[in-house]
Each structure stands twice: as C-alpha cells, then as structure tokens.
Design a protein that fits this description.
Structural class: alpha/beta
Shape: elongated
Number of helices: 16
Oligomer: single chain
Helix content: 40-55%
Radius of gyration: 32 Å
Mean pLDDT: 79
Strand content: 5-15%
C-alpha cells in the first residue's frame, strides 16, 4: 500500500508500531523521504546496505545529518520557493525555517552548525556580592544549604544554585583542611605515571592479636612469637606494604616487606616494573613522597637506569599522590582488616588473592564500573591494531 504525498510521488507505507519511539521513527522517515526522495525506512536501508556489502546491517534510523537537512532547506529557498512551503515540506515551523535561512545569509555554512541554547545574558542572576559570602561560608566552615540560607537570609534553592555554579555543591570535591576545590587529573595512557608509596602495619602475633582476643592472651601470644624484648616487652615489629599504582588504569602491584630502606625500595620497584612490563605497560615516570628511601640518590639512579623519570610531591602534600593513598585505604578495608587473622603469615598470604581481585574483577568508580585491567587491555588492543595498520601500509 502506497501513500500519496505529492505530484507523481508515492512512498511505501511503514509499519512503525506505537509509542514515543514509533513517533520519532515516523518523523525521521517522513523527513528523510520528503527531503531527498529516498526511502529511509529501516528495511530499505538494510536492503541497500546488504546489496553493497553482502552483509545484514543493524538498525540504521538516521539517514541524514542535521547539516544536510539545513543545507537542503536553504537550497530550496534560494531556488525561489516560499519559506512557508519549504517549512511545511520539511515538517518544521516557519519561524524556524526563517531562522536557519537568516543564519546562513549572515554567517554562511558555519551558521548552520548546532550552538548552545544558553542565553547571552541573565539579568536576574544572583549578584557577585551575594555569591561571595555563600562561597566563603562553604569553604571556611563547610556549612550546608540549610545553615547558609538562614545566616545570609537566602532561600536554600538560591544557595544551591550558587554552589553548583562555583563547583562547591559537593564537600567531596573540596580539600577539607583548606576548603580549596580539589584538582583531579588523570594521565592519558598506561605507564605515563606510576604512584609509589609505603603503608606501615603492625605485625600479628602467632595465635591472633587484640582484634580477636583479650589483651592478656595477646601478650602471651607475643611472648611465644618473639624473643626480642624492649623494656621487658616483646617486640612484634611492623610490616611495610610497598605499593605501585598506575595513574591511568589504576593497575596495582604490592608486596609485604620487612622495612622501608632504600635497597628494599629499589628491589621492590624492580619487581614492580617487571610486573607492569608483563602487562605491556611501559613506565615513563614514577611519583613518590619525600620519604628517606625515595630521597636517596640510589633510588633515583635505579629509575634512571631504566629510562624512568623520578618525580617527588611537594612536602606535606600527599593529595598529589592521591591514587596510591586511596589504594592504601582500600588495602586496609578489603585486605588487612577484612577478616581476623591468626598470624602475620596468614594475612600476607591473602594479599595475592586481593590483588588479583582488585586488578581483574573489582569495579572501579573512576573507570566507569570496570576493573583496572580493562583499560590496559583496551589500550593494548588499540596499539596492536595501529601497529598492524602501520605494518600493512609499510608493506
């Protein structure tokens, strides 16, 4: 069955179903056919594509881009046809048609590009003199809408709008000590920057520590675990978790080591670098704090021997190394303190399983809910495709 839509022209009827989606498809079908005279129905597109490529394509609702449609409108008007008639044919209002023609005559083809609908001026916007005390109370006292509003005599909705405009509506986006907006960054590729840090944890005596039993029993366990004494008290000591986290992918590597001296840190980095290399991640820079082991010349020389640049954060500014600092917190919550352990050996043995789950299965909010390994694999796959393309061109 054909529907007559003009002199000598009929287009095939289309079963589009019902609902808002069906209406959108109908409008697109109507626009595509009226503008070009080409049947843009999904079935027609599929048949044409199959004839060209020999394959059955997926849904293809969009046959025209907005620029082509606008240019078609302008061409018809320049051909001498009334704007009202062209607007009716293309399914738009006369004011809209006049607007596009006016833009084309003023700016040329560039005037047909999409632009923001935001007004150039907002006369009723809250003044800067009113916004300043709102921002000051937020950054200095960390107050919320319900408290800032009564203090300044403003509605909570106005306070919220001001805070959103200045990027202060989330306390998580502020540095708690200073109130300044936290500047978050992320490198463009794996290995461009790797964060390195050390977390110190108390050892667990054989039989368990104070988290699972009373202090009298804990003291007996400590006495049975070690012969070292200080002021007649047993010395259980500490474990040092050395960690390296890639800035772009958040891929992590950690080891439990007995100290944080320079030779231990150098040996750890060599093993960490081998791990990243095994994942096709070439490390370019390493960022550390100003700990004594990292300030040593031997550590910097060890990095330079592998062609790696050593960067150190500003003193007393751990936020710069925030990705590995956040990883340390995840270590405590999901490994060290996840369940009671009866010995230090038991806790250390569980680290490997945690790292595998963190790198391959744990969802990361900064990665869109994907694990860190997904970014390494995706970038590696793109690099392989690019290498194959370059190789084929060279051949």
């Amino acid at each position: 069955m054909n529907e007559y839509i003009g002199p000598g022209r009929a287009r095939p009827a289309l079963d589009i179903g019902s609902g808002a989606g069906a209406l959108a498809r109908h409008l697109h079908y109507e626009l595509g056919y009226r503008t070009t005279g080409v049947d843009c129905s999904p079935s027609a597109v599929a048949v044409a594509a199959a004839q060209d490529t020999g394959t059955a394509p997926g849904p293809a609702w969009r046959c025209l881009d907005i620029t082509t449609t606008d240019l078609t409108l302008v061409e018809r008007v320049l051909a001498g046809r009334p704007v009202a008639h062209v607007a009716a044919e293309m399914g738009i209002s006369r004011p809209t048609a006049h607007k596009w023609v006016r833009r084309w005559r003023t700016e040329g083809d560039a005037g047909l590009a999409d632009r923001s609908s935001r007004p150039r001026t907002t006369p009723h916007r809250t003044s800067s003199a009113t916004e300043a005390p709102v921002c000051h109370l937020r950054t200095s006292r960390k107050l919320g809408l319900a408290r800032i509003g009564p203090i300044l005599g403003l509605p909570a909705s106005t306070v919220h709008r001001v805070l959103v405009r200045h990027g202060l509506n989330r306390l998580a986006w502020l540095d708690r000590p200073t109130g300044a907006i936290v500047r978050r960054y992320e490198r463009a590729r794996p290995g461009e920057l790797v964060h390195v840090d050390i977390k110190k944890l108390g050892n667990i005596p054989d039989g368990g520590g104070h988290k699972i039993m009373d202090r009298r029993q804990v003291m007996d366990n400590k006495l049975a675990t070690t012969d070292e004494r200080k002021s007649c008290k047993p010395l259980i000591g500490y474990s040092f978790i050395h960690s390296a986290v890639d800035d772009y992918s958040r891929l992590a590597y950690s080891e439990v080591l007995p100290d944080e001296r320079q030779h231990t840190a150098i040996a750890f980095w060599q093993r960490a670098n081998a791990f990243f290399t095994g994942q096709s991640v070439i490390v370019e820079r390493v960022l550390t704090d100003n700990g004594s082991c990292y300030k040593s010349k031997l550590f910097t020389q060890a990095l330079a021997a592998s062609g790696i640049t050593h960067k150190k954060i500003r003193p007393y500014r751990p936020q710069t190394n925030g990705k590995v600092e956040r990883f340390n917190r995840t270590l405590l919550d999901e490994w060290a303190y996840l369940r009671p352990c009866t010995s230090n050996t038991e806790r250390t043995a569980a680290l490997a399983d945690f790292l595998h789950g963190y790198n391959h299965h744990r969802c990361h909010t900064a990665l869109g809910g994907h694990p860190p390994i997904s970014r390494v694999e995706s970038v590696g796959g793109l690099a392989l495709v690019e290498a194959e393309r370059v190789g084929s061109q060279t051949a």
